[in-house]
Amino acid sequence: MKVLLVDDEEKFVSRLAERLEIRGFEADWTTTSDGALSKVEHNEYNIAVLDVKMPRLSGIDLKKRLEKLAPKMKFVFVSGHGSEEDYDIGIREGASYLIKPFKIETLVEKIKEALSA
Amino acid sequence: MNPIKNFATHFKPRFWHAGTSMDQAQTLFNYRRFYLISVSLRAFVSIAPMAILLMFTYMLQDTAIENENHLRIVRLTSNTRRTITYFLQERLDALKFIIQQKNVEALKASDELSQVLHNLKMGFGGFVDLGLIDNSGSQIGYSGPFSLIGKNYRDQEWFIRCAEDGSYVSDVFLGYRNLPHMIVALRWPVEGSSAIFILRATLDIQKLIQILSSLELTEKSEAFLCSRDGLLQTPSDYYGEMLGRIDLPVPEYSVHTQVVETVDKTGDPILIGYAYIENSPFILMVVKRSVEIMKGWRSIRQKINWFFGVSVVITMVVVLCISILTMNRIYDADQTRLKAIERLETSSRLISVGRLAAGVAHEINNPLAVIGENAGLIKDLFTLRKEYKGDERLMELIDAVLESVERSGEITKELLGFARQFEPKITPIQLSRVLSEVLSFQRKEAAYRNIDIQVDVPEDIPMIYSDRGRLHQILLNLINNAFQAMKNGGRLDISVKRDGEKTVSIRIRDTGPGISPEDQKRIFEPFFTTRGSEGGIGLGLSITFGLVRKLKGDISVQSKLGEGAIFEIHLPINTQGEI
Q1: Chain A nearest CA to B402, separation (Å)
Q2: Where are the domains of chain B?
Q3: Numbered residues of chain B with Cβ closer than 8 Å to any chain A Cβ
Q4: Using CA atoms, how far apart are residues A11 and A65, in angstroms rounded to an integer?
Q5: CB-based contact A102 B365, cutoff 8 Å
Q6: Which residues contact B427 (CB under 8 A, 6 or more apart)?
Q7: Are the beta carbons of B99 and B188 closer than 8 angstroms?
Q8: In this structure, what CATH number is given to the domain that contains residue A60?
Q9: Class for domain B425-579, per CATH?
Q10: Do B369 and A19 touch (CB under 8 A)?
Q11: Closest chain A residue to the Cα of B366, Cα to Cα
Q12: A27, B502, B518, B547: which one has the fewest Cβ atoms less than 10 Å from its Cβ?
């Protein structure tokens, strides 16, 4: 199960990747949207966990670009803002939505939910 | 409250002391001045037309009465003049008849004159004596009660005038007999001779007095004759002595009957009708006192004045009441506006605070997530290694960090939720969640008040699209209201039910004292309160009503005294359009 984590906070995203690995996922991470695009271009992921608020390209826009590269890929959004807007967008984009900080178990659950859907 | 007392409170000028003391609510206007202006203007426009109308009526009435009285006096004076003129003319004609019938020689015989006098007395009346005077002025024949044979009238005015004019009517005078009397005389030319004879008759003035006293005059009104020199010819009770000067000015000569307004010697206004009687020295005067004329009208006017006075009093009472009611309404509206402004200020402050809180929460969430993941990884790593896995102290320490992160996360989420509720926005809402959010604020209060809260939200209740902030406020208001009603504790049942396809209903039932049917009708009106004495201003439920309407729902109340109250809100599952 390959997971791509995209968040501009390295200390967050790298630790999260490591923790998912411990939980049996094959986790890859990047802090930029460009990095995410190149990774998806060269590798195949089952699911991407995207931060909604990121510099240059927002999580929502990144999702649209990534979908074109990998149409089968699933998505989970995470955000520190937790506004209704983000929530609405997340729902509209057909992805789960988590407000930071969250428990790793919750993320695992959402990933599994997304993959089984 | 006593209904009369209740009614009377409407007319209590609540605004009177507004703004005069520091304790009072802030005011926007000088209500007292507005009130006084309003009372003055209303009183003026109500009473002034009435007063002007009354004045006009009186003026018209005065003119009408004056005209009517003038006319009456003119008519009376004219008729009396005709009667007196006829009386005198008739006597002169009688003498003329005698002259035509008899010759001088026949009349010289004393018996003949007596016979003629007798016939005149019988036929006409009013004759006292009859005399025949020759051209030297000597009375050559006489019949009557006095002994006047041989009296010479040569120098007397009546003799001279009659000799010149052919006929004469005298004024009333005393003469030789020293009794008031008057004479009529006629010249008698003898054919073929320059000698003249005069037939003279004395008339009884009682006849004239009778004519005048037979007029039906009111009290203190009089009719009398006066001579052109202003001497009273018939007796008068008020205006002078018989044959003395009258106390009134002699009216100017006029061919027609005239009426003049003047005052008598006491200064009372009088109306005088007068007429100069042709071929005689007499002026007929009919005097009426204006006071007497107005007597009948005065009692009518008194009634009208009373009516006017009472009308003014009633008008003033109505004006005062209306002005107080209006000013009270304006005052209340202003107070509401002030409160709304205050509320707006508060909520705008809260929105700013909310935005700040949201910003802070967002900024904190990211580092919290870093802490969480790092601590989580430490825990994961420790769990993987045997030497640390059993170290309870280490696990405890790391769990404390993770728990704190989780708790901080909850706090920031609450802050975000707090910020959201001030900005109206349709979002999908789970009613069970909203209810538990609202009740989380109220649990302590309920425990303190000894109120047991039961919530029943069936699982098949769908998400509704509505404004979370407003829904929060509605539920909070209704729950607070129920708490206020249950002073001695009780039970609060909140249940959610699906009403068909498009609506859900939320029922909030308390075990308070209930609401009377009269109060139920007015319960959603602004400023209606049954807790006035406890500081309630009666806006809570009206705001709630407004909020429910904004969410395109409706709210109703059912209650019986002593059996608690049920507030039921119906909300659309999908609120369409703007709110």
Answers
A1: 9
A2: 425-579
A3: 358, 361-363, 365-366, 368-374, 376-377, 380, 384, 405-406, 408-409, 412-413, 416, 420, 425, 427
A4: 25
A5: no
A6: A84, A87, A88, B465, B466, B467, B468
A7: yes
A8: 3.40.50.2300
A9: alpha beta
A10: no
A11: A80
A12: B518
CA distance B342 to B339: 5
Q: Convert the pLDDT of each residue in B289-340 to its tens digit.
A: 877 777 778 888 899 999 999 999 999 999 999 999 988 888 888 888 888 7
In order along its 117 residues, chain A shows pLDDT tens digits of 899 999 999 999 999 999 999 999 999 999 999 999 999 999 999 999 999 888 888 888 899 999 999 999 999 888 887 665 665 665 566 667 788 889 999 899 889 888 887
DSSP secondary-structure letter at B222? E
CA angle B332-B321-B334, nearest 5°? 15
Question: Which strands, in side-by-side order, build the sheet including B127-134?
Answer: B139-143, B127-134, B196-203, B182-189, B167-169
Among B394, B389, B380, B403, which Cα is nearest to A15's?
A: B380
| Domain membership of residue A102 as a residue range | 2-116
pTM of the model: 0.48
The number of helix segments (H) and strand segments (E) in chain B equals 13, 16
Q: B405, A101: Cβ pair inside 8 Å? A: yes
Q: Is omega for the bond preceding A101 within 30 degrees of 0, making it cis? A: yes
Tokens of B137: 């002025």
Partner-chain residue, chosen from A18, A84, A100, that has the shortest CB–CB distance to B420? A84
Token output for B63: 């003119």
With beta carbons under 8 A apart, name residues in chain B contacting A87: 427
